[in-house]
């Protein structure tokens, strides 16, 4: 059952003859701050991809927290990547894709991509196959987490389907390799539209396009031109742009000047990790991949093979992605309840995972949040 509850969550727009569905994920808590023991109104079938490495460790704890909030979820668990290759002979099984297309919502842990050889990225494959064209990464600091910018609150919007991620590489002659960067007017326009619509719904004031159009005059030039064209429809939102290298320096020195950042695929990947570093690391920041066919909520971090299997990973990034997912599903009260409890645990500062200076195990941190929710 796919439930559309709040028109502000799913807004259908007719723009220039093209139907654009924008899924707006509200970051701000609703006015109802805490609801305990609320009886669930709807059952939500959600595709769960635990992933590999630390994926199953963080996913199982996030599932525990979501279930403790009282939301009625029917999880459809699927494998992807190396696990799926071993079991089903393919990295992105059709049953998994069908499940997401049916449920329209998935929660996904990280999946390992072999470097320099082996199968192509499942994450990229999922985004391309389902045309999840918008990658949304809100970046906010959390209480008591050592970080450079405790006041930081910005959003990275990354184009998810093209640029150098098209994966079009070939050997021209031995010793010479060509990798093609694809930028289209269609994809650049729709991601710019997404950024401005999102900013409108979230009362954000400025969208900054990040590019290298001084060097890549055609490809990044087209991305920038589409951004500028779309910006004309949003006179109340400031539109500016920065060259990517300068933008990185500015982010490190004066990040407060950014509100919503719009980037093509590769720059978005790099800059969103940089932003995660500004607020305390990869274990904290959520992400959502959104398209007209559905939305996949996932942490920004990878499978962290260096700490996998030890039960020490920080589940906050996937938990925050789960909170975005609950708001997307209209379960705002449950999302607020989890978020408030998570903030309370951070504010107390007693139960913290190792990556942010504590000693707690993944499960202990989840237990602390559940305890707060039941308090
Ligand atoms: P990574 O994010 O896995 O790890 C980088 C560093 O951050 C490591 O030191 C790791 O221990 C730490 N870290 C990451 N998440 C953490 C968490 N939740 N709690 C505590 N510490 C955490 O990046 P990587 O090492 O470059 O990539 C490993 C694998 O993950 C690669 O195969 C890569 O392709 C894949 N990857 C997958 C996704 C995804 O599934 N969306 C995203 C990025 C990388």
Tell me about this structure.
The structure is a single chain. With 375 residues, the chain is an alpha/beta fold. The strands form three sheets. A ten-stranded mixed β-sheet has the order 4-3-5-14-13-6-7-12-10-11, sandwiched between helices. Helix 1 packs parallel to helix 11 and helix 10 packs across helix 11. The chain is globular. The N terminus is likely disordered. Nicotinamide-adenine-dinucleotide (NAD) binds next to loops.
What are the defining features of this structure?
375 residues, alpha/beta, ten-stranded mixed beta sheet, two-stranded antiparallel ribbon, 11 helices, binds nicotinamide-adenine-dinucleotide
The largest sheet, given as strand count, sense and whether it forms a barrel, is: 10 strands, mixed
If you average the pLDDT, what whole number results? 88
Beta-strand portion reads 15-25%
Structural class: alpha/beta
- From the N-terminal CA to the C-terminal CA, the straight-line distance is 31 Å
Ligands in the model, by name, code or SMILES, are: nicotinamide-adenine-dinucleotide
**Helix coverage percent:** 25-40%
Rg value: 20 Å
Strand order in space, largest sheet: 4-3-5-14-13-6-7-12-10-11
Question: Could you give the count of β-strands?
Answer: 14
Envelope shape: globular
- Spans with pLDDT under 50 lasting ≥5 residues? 1-39
The secondary-structure element order is: EEEHEHHEHEEEEHEHEHEHEEHHH
Describe the oligomeric state of these chains in a short phrase. Answer: single chain
